[in-house]
């Protein structure tokens, strides 16, 4: 496909039209933002690393039967994907307590949860993506109850597959966020990206953070952590 005009620019990615109406090009930028873009920065090779890592993970999920928007990696920074209408809900899954849940509930970070915790957030920058529940989502017209059931089931399946993959990489999948979209024929598929920007990933032996918390909390060695995740995933996927 030929890349055409830019359709959308987000905090970390740009989306371009192609000569096919149902395919778009996603370009990964080096810009990093956190805390609803109150903290901004850039780090070396971020776009390239997230593109590479997300490509590995989407390939693995597709092989395991997960419907996604992914078509192919085009180059260092770009992917060809199916055009979808993004459902304006962030599906957050937590296997361990961390981040906003630790803060909100006053629970220590690092506690393993006996149950899989699903958070729903309304994608709305002006509001800072507030935590909502199913009823709010239906009220807002973001999804029906039936669609939410399907979305939770898909998200749960993705969590189980990702836990197994990261386990092979000696990494704990603490939590992550995904976005789902609807294709032109109305099918709900995994969209956006899965990368150290959207997951909390801790080394199993040292508990070292290998994700965007290194940027959020100014821990340094950000690029190194993303490279480490890429290398470990590559090896894990050969096993
Ligand atoms: O900030 P919080 O603890 O709620 O984040 C939970 C998980 O969702 C983390 O892995 C974080 O990186 C991810 N997340 C995200 N995009 C957001 C909010 C959270 O990728 N807008």
From TrEMBL:
Pfam family, one: SAICAR_synt
Reactions mediated catalytically: 5-amino-1-(5-phospho-D-ribosyl)imidazole-4-carboxylate + L-aspartate + ATP = (2S)-2-[5-amino-1-(5-phospho-beta-D-ribosyl)imidazole-4-carboxamido]succinate + ADP + phosphate + 2 H(+)
InterPro entries listed in its UniProt record: SAICAR_synt/ADE2_N, SAICAR_synt_PurC, SAICAR_synth, SAICAR_synthetase, SAICAR_synthetase_CS
Key words, A-Z: ATP-binding, Ligase, Nucleotide-binding, Purine biosynthesis
One function term, GO molecular function aspect: phosphoribosylaminoimidazolesuccinocarboxamide synthase activity
Domain SAICAR synthetase/ADE2 N-terminal residues, every copy: 7-232
EC assignment: 6.3.2.6
Claim: ATP-binding is one of the keywords in the record: yes
Enzyme class per UniProt: ligase
GO biological process: 'de novo' IMP biosynthetic process; cobalamin biosynthetic process
Pathway(s) served: Purine metabolism; IMP biosynthesis via de novo pathway; 5-amino-1-(5-phospho-D-ribosyl)imidazole-4-carboxamide from 5-amino-1-(5-phospho-D-ribosyl)imidazole-4-carboxylate: step 1/2
Assigned protein family: Belongs to the SAICAR synthetase family.
PANTHER family reported in the protein's UniProt record: MULTIFUNCTIONAL PROTEIN ADE2 (PTHR43599), SI:DKEY-6E2.2 (PTHR43599:SF3)
Name the record gives this protein: Phosphoribosylaminoimidazole-succinocarboxamide synthase
Species lineage: Bacteria, Pseudomonadati, Bacteroidota, Flavobacteriia, Flavobacteriales
Gene encoding the protein: purC
């Amino acid at each position: 496909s030929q890349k055409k005009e830019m359709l959308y620019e987000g905090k970390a990615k740009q989306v371009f039209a192609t000569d096919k109406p149902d395919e778009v090009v996603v370009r990964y930028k080096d810009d990093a933002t956190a805390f609803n873009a109150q903290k901004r920065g850039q780090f070396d090779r971020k776009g390239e690393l997230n593109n590479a890592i997300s490509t590995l993970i989407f390939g693995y999920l597709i092989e395991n039967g997960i419907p996604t928007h992914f078509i192919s990696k085009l180059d260092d920074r770009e992917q060809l994907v199916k055009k979808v209408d993004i459902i304006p809900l962030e599906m957050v899954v937590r296997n361990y307590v961390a981040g906003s849940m630790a803060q909100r509930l006053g629970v220590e970070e690092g506690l393993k949860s006996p149950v899989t915790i699903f958070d729903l957030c309304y994608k709305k920058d002006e509001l800072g993506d507030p935590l909502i529940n199913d009823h709010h989502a239906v009220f807002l017209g973001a999804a029906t109850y039936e669609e939410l059931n399907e979305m939770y089931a898909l998200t749960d399946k993705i969590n189980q597959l990702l836990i197994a993959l990261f386990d092979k990489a000696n990494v704990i999948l603490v939590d992550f966020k995904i976005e789902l979209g609807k294709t032109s024929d109305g099918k709900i598929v995994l969209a956006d990206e899965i990368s150290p920007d959207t997951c909390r990933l801790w080394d199993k032996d040292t508990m070292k953070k290998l994700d965007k918390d290194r940027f959020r909390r100014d821990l340094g060695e950000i690029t190194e952590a993303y490279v480490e995740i890429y290398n470990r995933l590559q090896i894990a996927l050969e096993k």
